[in-house]
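User: Okay, second chain of the day. Same drill as before: sequence in, structure tokens out.
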Amino acid sequence: MRKYIFLSGIVSLFLSVPSIAETVSFPEEIVPLQVGDKKIEHSFFSRVDEVELTPGVYQLKLKYTDLYEQGYDEHQVVDSEPFWVTMTIAADTDYDVVFNRADNAVAAKVFAEAPQVSLQAKGQSLGTPLSVIPEPNFRSGAVAQVASTKAAPTASTAAIASVTAAQAPVSRPAPSVSNAPNAAAMLDFWWQQASAQEKQAFIEKVTKSK
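Assistant: Same drill. Structure tokens below.
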């Protein structure tokens, strides 16, 4: 009987151990490129929109890229240069990277010159602005912690990318469905972002499916 109680206690202890990694989610306009010295691999068919990090402090490389409708069948892509931020992840807390989206392409270009994002804990209404920092020198011995990343489909198929660490905060209202770009515009948008190899792979995939 005592042995049964002892084993039950061990099982309960293991079941009560919390997750070792917290999830940081990114909006489609903010693309995570690198966590510490580890690059995040995206493809024409998918992009990483979640990074799982153990509690700690991280340096993350991001990029702002947005799409604005200009007319019935026209749109404009607004990009920023890649930028680095420092992020602090607490235990037992998941986060959203948020920002205040510009109302039009002109304002978006201004934002792209000096992008500002925030890290917002899930369930909270306000985010903590993340300071933009100079590009870290990881050869000096700086170490970034990391867990894993999750990829979200952008065209038709999904892929998995491996990654490592980050931090960020800002609040931003969710975009309304009426302002969302149509499928053709999004396809053209990601086509412009793809490399020559990815474009060729996409053409071959479409040709084979006919």
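The helical segments are 2-15, 105-113, 183-193, 196-209.

User: Thanks, on to the next one.
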